[in-house]
């Protein structure tokens, strides 16, 4: 939704339901009203092979219901829009990490033992992201995955 | 304070001091600002390169403020609101390729040429009226159709 300049109200104006709803909608269209995002981190080591997704055990922050411990590899977008994603992971051997959307590789990162990367991606509501390992027989020892909604449409 | 979500009020509902203050005073204190401008553009096909080839964007996933045209100057994103922007770039090529970002046709950032897939996020100030382009700067490469660019305004006043 396009940006709409705020309207100044005069003293004594009644705030009708229509005005209320318009103003509230405009506020929620901005990228921050309501800080929507999540950070999940690893605890413990994870033996992984090519095609495995990194699992997350600790929900450091989750405003918007992105993370479900029943699906511990995923962060699921609550709304269609643009998201900032930051990934950090340490591997026992060089690994071509990738960021996947609904299980398909979307953003390919280089082959590294320590991944530190950020991306801006577009997601539709209910799509989920995972951090995917690209090499057999490695151990993922630490990491986090963070997502923040920048805009929704 | 936790995220409260948007609320829709019923016709005829009175706006009390409590819900006015909670929704319109406390929550907005946590946002960066109430101004927004941005776009998310994608390629729909591959593109052959020479030196200093501006990458074109054929599809707009999001462009509510008309920062981009799919008809004219399709490589350009024109800034409509002065401020600091988060810029997200994801570019792929069939072989290692150098890229750079330009403002009004002049280079502002170079990305090294070792990548066949490159993901970067930067924060940079722009002025209304300036235009931004992503260039490939290695000859005889093919830019992937999954290449994207995103702009998100973080307006500082």
> What is the count of helical runs of chain B?
1
- Cα radius of gyration of chain A in angstroms: 19 Å
The chain pair with the largest interface is: A-B, 42 and 47 residues
Mean pLDDT over the residues of chain B: 83
What's the overall geometry of chain A?
elongated
Separation of the first and last Cα atoms of chain B: 24 Å
Largest sheet of chain A: 8 strands, antiparallel
Quaternary state of the chains: heterodimer
Order of helices and strands of chain B: HEEEEEEEEEE
Bin the strand percentage of chain A: over 45%
Note poorly predicted spans of chain B. Answer: 25-35
The largest sheet of chain B, given as strand count, sense and whether it forms a barrel, is:
8 strands, antiparallel
- Quickly give the structural class of chain A: mainly beta
What's the number of helices of chain A? 1
Q: Helix/strand-derived class of chain B?
A: mainly beta
Radius of gyration over C-alpha positions of chain B, nearest whole angstrom: 20 Å
User: How far apart are the termini of chain A?
Assistant: 6 Å
Portion in helices of chain A: under 10%
Q: How many beta strands in the DSSP annotation of chain A?
A: 8
């Amino acid at each position: 939704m396009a940006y709409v300049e705020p309207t100044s109200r005069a003293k004594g104006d009644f705030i009708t339901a229509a005005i209320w709803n318009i103003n509230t909608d405009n506020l929620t269209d901005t990228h921050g009203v309501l800080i929507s995002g999540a950070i999940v981190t690893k605890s413990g080591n994870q033996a992984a092979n090519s095609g495995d997704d990194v699992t997350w055990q600790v929900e450091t922050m989750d405003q918007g219901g992105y993370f479900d411990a029943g699906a511990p590899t995923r962060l699921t977008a609550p709304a269609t829009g643009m998201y900032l994603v930051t990934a950090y992971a340490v591997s026992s051997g060089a690994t071509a990490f990738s960021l996947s959307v609904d299980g398909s590789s979307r953003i390919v990162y280089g082959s590294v033992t320590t991944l530190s990367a950020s991306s801006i991606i577009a997601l539709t509501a209910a799509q989920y992201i995972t951090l995917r390992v690209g090499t057999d027989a490695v151990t993922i020892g630490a990491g986090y995955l963070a997502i923040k909604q920048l805009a929704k449409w | 304070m936790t995220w409260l979500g948007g609320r829709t009020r019923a016709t005829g509902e009175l706006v009390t001091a409590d819900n006015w203050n909670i929704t319109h005073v406390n929550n907005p204190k946590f946002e960066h600002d109430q101004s927004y401008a941005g776009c998310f553009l994608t390629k729909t096909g591959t593109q052959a390169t020479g030196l200093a080839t501006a990458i074109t964007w054929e599809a707009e996933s999001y462009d509510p403020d008309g920062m981009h045209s799919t008809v004219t100057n399709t490589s350009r994103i024109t800034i409509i609101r002065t401020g600091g922007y988060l810029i997200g770039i994801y570019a792929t090529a069939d072989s290692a390729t150098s890229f750079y970002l330009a403002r009004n046709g002049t280079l502002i950032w170079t990305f090294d040429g070792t990548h066949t897939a490159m993901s970067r996020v930067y924060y940079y100030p722009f002025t209304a009226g300036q235009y931004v382009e992503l260039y490939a700067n290695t000859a005889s490469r093919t830019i992937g159709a999954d290449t994207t660019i995103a702009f998100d305004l973080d307006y500082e006043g």
